[in-house]
Amino acid sequence: MAMRTSLLGVLAFGFLCFICLPAEAALKKYQFDVKVSNVSRLCNAKQMVTVNGGFPGPTIYAREGDRVQINVTNYAQYNLSIHWHGLKQYRNGWADGPAYITQCPIQTGNSYVYDFNVTGQRGTLWWHAHILWLRATVYGAIVIMPQQGTPFPFPQPDREEVLVLGEWWNADVEQVEKQGNALGLPPNMSDAHTINGKPGPLFPCSEKHTFAMEVEKGKTYLLRIINAALNDELFFALANHTFTVVEIDAVYTKPFTTDSILIAPGQTTNVLVRANQLPGRYFMAARAFMDAPISVDNKTATAIFQYKGIPETVIPKLPTLPAQNDSDFALSYNSKLKSLNTPKYPANVPLNVDRHLLLTVGLGINPCPTCLNGTRLTASLNNISFIMPETALLQSHYFNIKGVYTPDFPDKPPTPFNFTGAPLTTNLRTNVGTRISKIAFNSTVEIVIQDTNLLSVESHPFHLHGYNFFVVGTGIGNFNPKKDPAKYNLNDPIERNTVGVPTGGWTAIRFRADNPGVWFFHCHLELHTGWGLKTAFLVENGPGLDHSILPPPKDLPSC
């Protein structure tokens, strides 16, 4: 079997770090050419949008404290923007990237420089297109090393590897999305999952499209795992080996061991794995998790963990992944995620809350005369299906452009009901609009995200731009404001930027609103985001220029 090993890439990275990561902060510059490339998978060749011709695109390497400038030149037929997922972009929403939220998209033939500082963050994050479904092919990793001389708070690995989990469609993804929208139905699901852009040998025509990493017995490896899939939460495991989870979403965790991990779209997980088994060839495998009556791509992507000196004729062994609907594993796994909470890496959880929000997740059916069944599927928060503006929200706020949005998003659902009771098939006063929530600078915020049984319960991974937050509580059923807060973990809750709300349950998060700007908050299932499951928070300026939004760059794209 022909396959690509990763040794040269790791050596190149080590050399890159040696020559370009001095003790003091450095300036890192990258050129991203967004262009259409010919790519073949699953016996199908197609043209698709890539960055620098790669699938996935290039990895951004930086060190905590560095300044990064990425010049994005758009040669593709689609206007687009790129989001640097998980970077906080303090006062600098202009570099955040979601189209029509913090910037207008980069038009075909134009360029835009994303210029930002990496402050107080280290670990694994990622970047992706943030318009339409272009992130199906336009994505890559971000690796932020600690400051020079600062070790990891866990055993130093001998080597590390980036593993980006994704999806593959044989058809043009943008056409798949357009067809679904025209019919008012969910678009066709993907034809395969991928690991570093490759589906693995369980798929046809895929022997040469299999990612492999060569390992040596007795050595320890850090795997930087990213879920870049559009719509699927994924289990991931390595046959005959265990993982030690040490970081999620670029935040160190209390280490724990597990045979498998669960990772939602938008999330990252760093694990240590020791090559301590009988030398051989072992499959790493990724497969969807879905514990609701909803169809998903249930095919398994594989890559190979190959011990040095073992011939490629040896058939790899598959790991045992949890069952597709294993809710118990999902709940147990997420309950083990705890912040490190040491003097060097404290968990500064807000203990008192200034602003409480209860956001209900709803699916609905709206009239659509041109759609197949005369209806269209929609999604909402607090019964509001968000309409994307034609002028970027941050620009309209900064330049005081009227009529783009209204700052009246409700703090609670207008119609209380038994959220997770019997399935409801009717909308509850679902409205559409560009309604956002205004939050006072430096106030402490608690958001309870409540799943509902409007059409169906389902797990939803929510991402907040511009911030990390603490996951202080989660549960199944309806949130009880009188009883459930007493069970919160306010000591060492996990800190992250994307959190899964359990099927038929709720999740409570807290953060301090100390980053002024307009910050997107949305489900990271691209299907639901497109249906309207999103809003934004307008965090007001604080006192003085040091606590106010930075002036926009001169090359900011116009709509």
Task: Name the descriptors.
single chain, 559 residues, mainly beta, six-stranded mixed sheet, 5 helices, 32 strands, 8% helix, 37% strand, disordered N terminus
Strand content: 35-45%
DSSP summary: helix tally: 5
Give the CA-CA distance, first to last residue: 49 Å
> Low-confidence runs (pLDDT<50, min 5 residues)?
1-22
**Shape descriptor:** globular
Main sheet properties: 6 strands, mixed
Q: What is the strand tally?
A: 32
Task: Please state the structural category.
Answer: mainly beta
Q: Overall mean pLDDT score?
A: 94
Radius of gyration, whole Å: 22 Å
Helix content: under 10%
Read across the widest sheet, the strand sequence of neighbours is 10-9-12-17-14-15
Explained architecture:
The N and C termini lie far apart (49 Å). Helices cover 8% and strands 37% of the residues. The strands form 7 sheets. A 6-stranded mixed sheet has the order 10-9-12-17-14-15, with no helix packed on it. A 6-stranded mixed sheet has the order 21-20-25-30-27-28. A 5-stranded mixed sheet has the order 11-19-18-13-16. 49% of the residues are buried. It has 5 helices and 32 strands. By secondary structure, it is mostly beta strands. Mean pLDDT is 94; it is low at 1-22. It is globular.
Structure summarized in a few sentences:
By secondary structure, the chain is mainly beta. Helices cover 8% and strands 37% of the residues.
Write the layout of secondary structure elements.
Blueprint (H helix, E strand, L loop, with lengths): L6 H14 L6 E15 L2 E8 L8 E4 L3 E8 L7 E4 L25 E7 L5 E7 L9 E7 L13 E10 L4 H11 L8 E4 L16 E4 L4 E8 L5 E6 L4 E6 L2 E8 L1 E4 L4 E7 L6 E9 L11 E7 L19 H9 L19 E13 L7 E7 L2 E3 L6 H6 L32 E3 L3 E3 L4 E7 L9 E5 L4 E8 L18 E2 L1 E4 L3 E8 L4 E7 L2 H6 L2 E6 L20
Parallel strand pairs: 1-4, 3-8, 9-12, 11-19, 20-25, 22-23, 24-32
Antiparallel strand pairs: 1-2, 4-6, 5-7, 7-8, 9-10, 12-17, 13-16, 13-18, 14-15, 14-17, 18-19, 20-21, 25-30, 26-29, 26-31, 27-28, 27-30, 31-32
